[in-house]
From TrEMBL:
<keyword id="KW-0547">Nucleotide-binding</keyword>
<keyword id="KW-0411">Iron-sulfur</keyword>
<comment type="subunit">
    <text>Homodimer.</text>
</comment>
<comment type="function">
    <text>Binds and transfers iron-sulfur (Fe-S) clusters to target apoproteins. Can hydrolyze ATP.</text>
</comment>
<protein>
    <recommendedName>
        <fullName>Iron-sulfur cluster carrier protein</fullName>
    </recommendedName>
</protein>
<keyword id="KW-0408">Iron</keyword>
<keyword id="KW-0067">ATP-binding</keyword>
<keyword id="KW-0479">Metal-binding</keyword>
<comment type="similarity">
    <text>In the C-terminal section; belongs to the Mrp/NBP35 ATP-binding proteins family.</text>
</comment>
<keyword id="KW-0378">Hydrolase</keyword>
<feature type="binding site">
    <location>
        <begin position="30"/>
        <end position="37"/>
    </location>
    <ligand>
        <name>ATP</name>
    </ligand>
</feature>
<comment type="similarity">
    <text>In the N-terminal section; belongs to the MIP18 family.</text>
</comment>
Length: 269
């Protein structure tokens, strides 16, 4: 069993790295491909839609997919204060542009990056402290799946409000999610809750729901582990095509099926 500790939310303060943010939220998963980046981007957009100032940091340095999902590109400039200028997501949501930083903006898309521990540590700290985030209510961080290197670096650099763990409902994925939860615990990052992604598919033709990967496994596991369950997101073709076409923000704005569970999760953070 995972022990949950009642962690008070860290007070608004300048982090050691000079970040002006009220809450830093890490989105993690036990393994890749479960929709962690999709959920991280969706959470950031939902929090922003609720009127908060939000930044999105893609710390999944091994497979930075946030730029692709949101259709963002370009090289971040360095300003006169030697701070990296994030790439801004502007859309017609009526909200101010959202700053985004990702290793994907700094390396060629088909280039593999071989990371050594100190380099990883350095780049995460740079993303946190040397980026011109401005003043934020939330910084949502898309973590690399699995291992604890980046989580450890983060926990040392800034006070984290906590982590959201994304998983799919099948048993093997849940086993990996438990490892992710235990990894966050080891580095003293509280667990804000679990999100079940790809939970059931509603056939648009017949209206019948197919539980392709099962359903409800994450909720049951969350109860067992005594961590909050934040909600489930169905398998949604629009979400997949939206992500592939760099239109995730647009799809979420238009599609209530996928938006609502994430909105509910964001409200509970
Ligand atoms: P991860 O960050 O865990 O590797 P991604 O967020 O990159 O996963 O998602 C992997 C793929 O699955 C992407 O093509 C994404 O568009 C798709 N995807 C994620 N969640 C859903 C969903 N609920 N329904 C349909 N496709 C999804």
């Amino acid at each position: 069993k995972v022990e949950t500790v009642d962690h008070p939310r860290p007070p608004a303060r300048l982090g050691q790295v000079g970040l002006r943010v009220k809450s830093v939220i890490a989105v993690g998963s036990g393994k890749g491909g479960v929709g962690k980046s999709t959920v991280a981007a969706s959470l950031a957009l939902s929090l922003r839609q609720m009127g908060s100032r939000v930044g999105l940091m893609d710390a999944d340095v091994y497979g930075p997919s946030i730029p692709h999902l949101l259709g963002l590109s370009g090289r971040p400039a360095v300003n006169a204060q030697k701070k990296i200028e994030p790439i801004m997501l502007s859309d017609d949501s009526g909200q101010p542009p959202m700053p985004v930083i990702s290793m994907g903006f700094l390396v060629e898309p088909d280039q593999a990056v071989i990371w050594r521990g100190p380099m990883l540590h350095g780049s995460i700290n740079q993303f946190l402290g040397d980026t011109n985030w401005g003043e934020l209510d939330y910084l949502v961080i898309d973590m690399p799946p699995g291992t604890g290197d980046v989580a450890l670096t983060l926990s040392q650099a800034v006070p984290l409000a906590g982590s959201v763990v994304v998983c799919t409902p099948q048993e093997v994925a849940l086993l990996d999610a438990i490892k992710a939860i235990s990894m966050f615990h080891k580095v003293n990052i509280p667990i804000l809750g679990m999100v079940e992604n790809m939970s059931g598919f509603m056939c648009p033709d017949c209206g019948k729901t197919y539980d392709i990967f099962g359903r409800g496994g994450a909720r049951a596991k969350a109860e067992e582990l005594n961590v909050p369950f934040l909600g489930s997101l169905p398998i949604d073709i629009d979400l997949r095509t939206g992500g592939d076409e760099g239109q995730l923000a647009k799809v979420l704005a238009e599609n209530t099926r996928s938006r609502i569970p994430i909105e509910a999760a964001a409200k509970s953070l």
